[in-house]
Design brief:
Helix 1 (77-90) crosses helix 8. The chain has 17 helices and 28 strands. By secondary structure, the protein is α/β, with parallel strands linked by helices. The relative contact order is 0.09. It folds into 5 domains: 3-106, GIY-YIG endonuclease (3-Layer(aba) Sandwich), CATH 3.40.1440; 134-313, 3-Layer(aba) Sandwich (Rossmann fold); 325-366 and 426-564, Rossmann fold (3-Layer(aba) Sandwich), CATH 3.40.50.300; 371-422, no CATH class; 572-662, Ribosomal protein S10 (Alpha-Beta Plaits), CATH 3.30.70. One of its GO terms (molecular function) is ATP binding. It comes from Candidatus Accumulibacter phosphatis. Keywords: ATP-binding, DNA replication, DNA-binding, Helicase, Hydrolase, Isomerase, Metal-binding, Nucleotide-binding, Primosome, Zinc.
Length: 667
């Protein structure tokens, strides 16, 4: 009797044994195949991980595998090593990690009938490659000649990082290898996908992201596994794509927090990409105009002794293009008119005269953050969350940006009946309305998650911008990175100061990256660009570094502060979070977790007190957290492996849920 060990998508930290049915014979070549098995009263798709010599279960009780799905090649050994590392580092059940990386169609008991990729009749001529700048040549030469396998490419906005990526992909294709290109968000894929397709029209490019339908996702994933696709472009889950001939991984905008999964298995796709490249001995390039401070620290070794080799592109690649001029508008003296300074309004008017585009950047969607009654003090509070309902005037509704709850805009105050309700604060919809009144002749386009809820809507907006059908853009961070708008010469940033003094110690890093990225949209062609920052603190060191386009100085300042405070990357953290209908239950569970016995080996681990989260209530659940920290990553991981088993043994209220996040980004 053959015994098959199978991984299943269940929250248990073990595999399950089945017997191979009579008439079937399995070999090690079948490891990595999907199988259909009975599980309780149901049936599940699992993955064969081992052929075992024995089992702890009486042979008479072993259930048989129902079918072996061999229509696809088995998952490769490198994929197993990646998922095992992910499960171990983030302390998640291995079966859940393995199965969650597969497209839903391949986990379904009745999967859709696969269709092949669309084949071209004839070869399409490739778009010619542009001439390289001296800096691009130097970067490519360094990668080709160096013995390092991990590179951090720090390139200012518009410096031609994408062209470096394309040349590296070209080298891989020439030697018969596959390439994986990761981007943080779906709205970055259309423009990049078109550019890669134009350069390599016959290379079998596929995309993998959440906007794809299940049939398309399964088809593209299959093409990657079989080797039919030579280039995979995707968002964070694509890091798990099985690629048997992988030779290159590129992580664009590597600093972006979207690479961190915020629910389910909370992994960092960037960090897993680094492990995958190291494990397979292949090249990885992390690119950004504003690298994460962790990556920057990893590249700061003396004489190239850092974990990453640092490469730089300091000049823009476009002929005649230069970095935009940044200046601060001191709003203590230049009084705001409906949130806009006189200097910014004048600059927009000048662009309208010159038929150039302007971008007004405000990272807050909706019309106003809150609706309030001055008579009694009522505010539009979400009854499910510790947050306000945001006024969305275009949709005539109040909407919670945390749980999605919606309500009609009241005509009267619900408490006192007052008809004079006021909107406080500003969002993109309100700025759009102000600009429309101030510049009635201008074509104004708002770009945020309300106006671009799908990839198709985003592509329509993008076409309008690039086609010159708009004069003024009002947008959130959706417009801050990865886009080339040749006619855009002015960027105005509204209300950036709040992040300067936020409780989250990562806020300055995020603010600098956000402002540097959005500033980079200006002047990317042969027209000079200008960026105006409305601030009450024009002398702040963050703005001083930003005006000089001096990321290294900003990073050095931030890393010094973090080292003095003992924050990452000079410490390593994990966050235990609990949520329950009652805050007392959530805090009680965390107190029990903190009270678990600690061995002498774990004395390097520091516990902080359980506290409510900043957003203490979301979707009618009270939320609390417990931070655990250590100066040693190894010590923290050793402790967490033991602690997780203790946490699972704690008796908690039935409706309480908890999760552990390693290397948390949100506090």
């Amino acid at each position: 009797m053959q015994i098959a060990r199978v991984a299943l998508d269940v929250p248990l930290r073990r595999f399950f044994d089945y017997r191979v049915p009579e008439g079937e014979r399995m070999s090690v070549a079948d490891i990595g195949c999907r199988v259909r098995v009975p599980f309780g009263q149901r049936h599940k798709i699992g993955i064969l991980v081992e052929l075992a010599a024995d089992t702890d279960i009486p042979l008479a009780q072993l259930k048989p595998i129902e079918s072996i799905l061999r229509e696809l090649p088995p998952l490769p050994a490198a994929w197993f090593r990646l998922t095992k590392f992910c499960a171990a580092y983030y302390h998640a059940p291995l079966g859940q990690v393995m199965l969650s990386t597969l497209p839903a169609g391949l986990r379904a008991l009745a999967p859709p009938k696969p269709r092949p990729l669309r084949q071209r009749i004839v070869d399409v001529p490739a778009q010619p490659a542009p001439l390289l700048t001296c800096e691009q040549e130097a970067v490519l030469t360094s990668i080709a000649a160096g013995n390092a396998r991990a590179y951090l490419l720090h390139g200012v906005t518009g410096s031609g990082k994408t062209e470096v990526y394309l040349r590296l992909i070209e080298r891989c294709l020439a030697v018969g290898q596959q390439s994986l290109l990761l981007v943080p968000e779906i709205n970055l894929t259309p423009q990049l996908e078109a550019r890669v397709m134009a350069r390599f029209p016959n290379a079998g490019l596929v995309s993998l992201h959440s906007e794809l339908g299940e049939a398309a996702r399964s088809r593209n994933w299959r093409a990657a596994l079989t080797g039919e696709a030579r280039i995979v472009l995707g968002t964070r889950l694509a890091v798990f794509t099985p690629l048997p001939e992988l030779g290159l991984i590129i992580v664009d905008e590597e600093h972006d927090s979207s690479f961190k999964q915020q629910d389910g298995i909370r992994y960092s796709a960037r960090d897993l990409a680094v492990f995958r490249a190291h494990d397979s001995g292949i090249l990885i390039v992390l690119g950004s105009a504003t690298p994460s401070l962790e990556s920057w620290a990893n590249a700061q070794g003396v004489d190239g002794s850092g974990r990453y080799r640092l490469l730089s592109l300091r000049e823009r690649a476009f002929a005649g293009a230069c970095l935009p001029l940044l200046r601060c508008i001191d709003t203590r003296f230049d009084k705001l008119q409906d949130g806009l300074s006189g200097a910014l309004l004048l600059a927009i008017e000048q662009r309208l005269v010159r038929a150039e585009q302007s971008l007004v950047f405000l990272n807050r969607r909706g019309y106003a953050p809150v609706l309030a009654c001055a008579a009694c003090g009522w505010t539009s509070h979400c009854h499910r969350c510790a947050a306000n309902l945001v006024l969305h005037l275009a949709d005539r509704c109040l909407r919670c940006h945390h749980c999605g709850f919606e309500a009609r805009v009241p005509k009267l105050c619900p408490t006192c009946g007052n008809q004079d309700l006021s909107a406080f604060g500003r969002g993109t919809q309100r700025i759009e309305a102000v600009l429309a009144e101030r510049f009635p002749q201008a074509r104004i386009l708002r770009v945020d998650r309300d106006s671009a809820r799908s990839r198709k809507q985003w592509e329509v907006l993008l076409a309008r911008i690039q086609g010159g059908e708009t004069d003024i853009l009002v947008g959130t961070q959706m417009l801050a990175k990865g886009h080339d708008f040749p006619k855009l010469t002015l960027v105005g940033a509204i209300a950036p100061d709040a992040a300067l003094f936020a409780a989250d110690w990562r806020a300055p890093e995020r603010l600098f990256a956000q402002l540097m990225q959005v500033a980079g949209r200006a002047g990317r062609a042969d027209r000079p660009g200008e960026v105006l920052l409305q601030t009450q603190f024009p002398e702040h060191p963050l703005y001083a570094a930003l005006i000089r386009h001096d990321y290294p100085a900003f990073a050095a300042m931030q890393l010094k502060e973090r080292q003095q405070a003992g924050f990452p990357p000079y410490a390593h953290q994990a966050m235990l979070r609990a949520e329950s209908p009652r805050m007392a239950d959530a805090l009680g569970f965390l107190a029990s977790a903190r009270a678990q016995p600690v061995s002498d080996e774990d004395l390097q681990v520091i516990f902080y007190d359980p506290v409510p989260m900043r957003l203490s209530r979301r979707a009618s659940l009270e939320r609390a957290q417990l931070l655990v920290e250590s100066p040693s990553r190894r010590a923290l991981q050793r402790f967490l492996a033991h602690w997780v088993t203790q946490l699972e043994a704690i008796r908690a209220p039935s409706r309480l849920r908890w999760h552990l996040e390693v290397d948390p980004l949100e506090f």
